[in-house]
Amino acid sequence: MKLIFEKSTQGRSCSILPPCDVEQIELKEGLARKTKPDLPQLSETDVSRHYTELCNRVHGVNNGFYPLGSCTMKYNPRIDEQMAALEGFTSIHPLAPDYSTKGCKAVLDTAEKCLCEITGMDGMTFQPAAGAHGEFTGVLLIKQYHASRNDTRRTKIIVPDSAHGTNPATAAMCGFEVVNIPSAPDGCVDLQALKGALGEDTAGLMLTNPNTLGIFDENILEITRMVHEVGGLCYYDGANLNAVMGVVRPGDMGFDCIHLNLHKTFATPHGGGGPGAGAVGCKAFLRAFLPGSAIKGHEGIQVRSFAGNFLVVVKAVTYILTLGKEGIPEAARNAVLNANYLMRRIQGTFEPAFDRICMHEFVLDLSRFKEETGVSALDVAKSLIDRGIHPPTMYFPLIVHEALMPEPTETESKETLDEAADIFRELYELARKDPDYMKSSPHNAQIGRPDEVQAARNPILRWKRT
Description:
This protein is α/β, with parallel strands linked by helices. It is 38% helix and 9% strand. The strands form two sheets. The protein has a seven-stranded mixed β-sheet, with helices on both faces. A four-stranded antiparallel β-sheet has the order 8-9-11-10.
């Protein structure tokens, strides 16, 4: 496919932009660029066909099954998009006078009330731009809390080996030493290892429950008690909240602060790098350290301009109010039901890393399968592309070496799950009959199998006109 610059024809134009509705200002001498911007010259037909072609090359939730583990790529109801597209929300300026932002403030207040009720927290900020930014903000709350008490000994953050990679990165960026603890044979936190890591230098623990293996840690109350007993705080990574929302609350598990991926759990699938929103909630004793929101008249520390990605919050509020108190837990239970159903339908071919009831996602361990056939988890993932399924998350978490992590979400039907299970079984048999075919997959996709080492070491990041 050609780039839009390569489709450009000198002198061609179209008039798809509306006329300027504000006063035109001539720039002062020295401020204007000396050459015109190198923009493509295209007709309206050219533009329309270009972006339609791009759309046809993308696999999204509206194209087919998208079981990307740990990402919760569920269908986003159209009503959420419609509410976020209302002119009263899209046309508001963050520095608009108070009388014109009352509706936006009401959205933020409603979102805070609903999400605090769902999570068991007492306060919430919507400034963080995405999940990792929310993590960063949450861990800074812990750091500021200890600093406010002059407790400078607390320099370490404990992170399990099954955690998201952003967890240790976040702790390090906040200036903490990261202490990694291994998982127990059941995939949960090793209590003895945790006990050995705890001490007077413990600032906190970063944990998600259910964890990245899709397992709910039944020792969670003991885990948070142990951390609190030595004076540390407990941070909840909200990436997997979709499995437990409305059923059990992180605040009741003993967590002191939390970030939420509104773009996962609350209806804004985050393909293409955004948009995201990493709302951060906390217990009352940490509320004073929350960053403020300019649109709500707060002053003081901010981690992002204005109110964050506000329209994502609009979608989240719409989603919550549409489902209500009955629909939210029902969605979580259906996510768990779908994951367990798919896992059992696949079992007997590809085997789960932990043969037990899972939550919203599960991890397949293809180590023995690779030894027997020479076909890797990557080969299976590439083969799924040819069959209209977006590959599950691969090689994560790192403690499972040939890992595939499907997360079907609650918005998929039984028929879709049955079809996906049949495809997994088909690939299992194909690997034994024709492993070379799978090793060269995909065969029918827009792009074949690229040289990933070359792409990583010598990436082409921009196009240059020849």
